[in-house]
Amino acid sequence: MGERRSAAWFGGSGRAGMIHRSWMRSQGFGPEVFDGRLVIGIATSSSEPAQCNAHLDRIAEGVKRGVWQAGGLPLALPTMATGETLMRPTSMLYRDLTALEVEELIRANPLDGVVLLSGCDKTTPAMLMGAVG
Q1: CA distance 131 to 129
Q2: Is the pLDDT of residue 63 over 70?
Q3: Which of 111, 38, 110, 53 is closest to 85 using CA atoms?
Q4: Residue 123 above 60 pLDDT?
Q5: How many CB atoms lie within 10 A of CB 93?
Q6: Is the model's pLDDT at 4 over the cut of 90?
Q7: I want to staple 130 with a disulfide (CB 3.0 to 4.6 A). Which of 24, 97, 103, 104 is the partner?
Q8: Average pLDDT in the 107-126 region?
Q9: Do 43 and 117 touch, CB atoms closer than 8 A?
Q10: What is the per-residue pLDDT for 2?
Q11: CA atoms within 13 A of residue 12's CA, in its CB half-sphere
């Protein structure tokens, strides 16, 4: 296994590592979370207008607790939901945008792994497309 992606952000002893750690410290994360533990992103499409995604915030909190209990550092990443019932003209127009968003969130952040939480028949494939992108 190679070096964890998160180590490139948080493990450095130079200026860049200090800056990345300080951004997280300003959110209340203590120095103990920078001990080399896995950083796990929780990409969630929780959204009240998209009824099949509305409950995902509660599930994301449970996933966060599980990641903490397993010794990881969970970071929530909200993503766009493509609920069919209220989006006009159709949520299919936004599926590829959601896929691109998920792909870039995974690529652009210091994540060693990601949990995808989605609902609906457009959001779920979009998140899977983004994860393999």
Answers
A1: 6
A2: yes
A3: 53
A4: yes
A5: 12
A6: no
A7: 103
A8: 93
A9: yes
A10: 58
A11: 14
Following DSSP, what letter does each residue of the chain receive, concatenated?
Answer: ----HHHHHHS-SSHHHHHHHHHHHTTT--GGGGSSPPEEEEEE---SSSTTTTTHHHHHHHHHHHHHHTT-EEEEEE-----TTT-SS-THHHHHHHHHHHHHHHHHS--SEEEEE--STTHHHHHHHHHH-
- Res 66 pLDDT > 70: yes
Q: Is 85 exposed, middle or buried (0-12, 13-18, 19+ CB in 10 A)?
A: exposed
Whole-angstrom Cα distance, residue 120 to residue 47? Answer: 11
Pick the residue with more confidence: 91 or 23? 23
Angle made by CA atoms 98, 27, 60, in degrees to the nearest 5: 45
Tokens of 99: 């896929």
Nearest to 80 by CA among 113, 53, 111: 53
Token representation of residue 8 = 């490139």
Answer left, alpha or beta for residue 71, where phi above 0 means left and psi between -120 and 50 means alpha.
left
Take residue 11 and report the two structure tokens written for it: 């493990």
